[in-house]
Design goal:
By secondary structure, the protein is an alpha+beta fold. 50% of the residues lie in helices and 14% in strands.
Amino acid sequence: MRLKEFSRFNKIALDIAYRIQNNELVEGMKIKGRSQLSSEYNVSSETIRRAISVLKESDVVEVIEKSGVIIKSKQNALKFIRTYDMYIDLNNKQKELHQLLEQKKRVDKEIEEHFFEIIDISSKLKHKDEIPYYHCDIQKHSHLINQSLKHTHFYQHTNATIIAIKRDEEVFISVHKDFIFEYKDIIYFVCKNEDYNKTIQFIKKSTS
């Protein structure tokens, strides 16, 4: 059975399957005519036809010419119910995931905005003996590319502390020692004034 949009005729097909599960309809029993079902479910006869077609595809019912629709298999009705239960669960999980991803985007955006606000405020406080923030981008032939923070011994070579790394639109804060540097990453760091040039040179150091 191919999963389709859970529309009105799918719901009717599922309801009939539940009636089979509950022994309200049993194997070999003939279902009411299309017009009676249309009246019972308050839908068009075409909607009923599509519902029956879905059940036929799943071998729940059998359509016999001039005899009507016969209940064929309770076991297949149970399979049909389980499949649609999983479909509904999957659909709900997808919706929840989409909501979580949207929430994550909003949180990431807020973190980024707060980070740059801190950068801006800190830069304005330089004259008050606050430790200044600096930044430098990783250039094409930098020796840092594809190396972890731990492997580069960044602090040991520079006396500078990385406070964040910006990659495209994403900002990494509290960078882990296993973080891998990439081309065009922008490194934000703090250091003493006398260590600034040394840090910039280290970041821009070429592999060649």
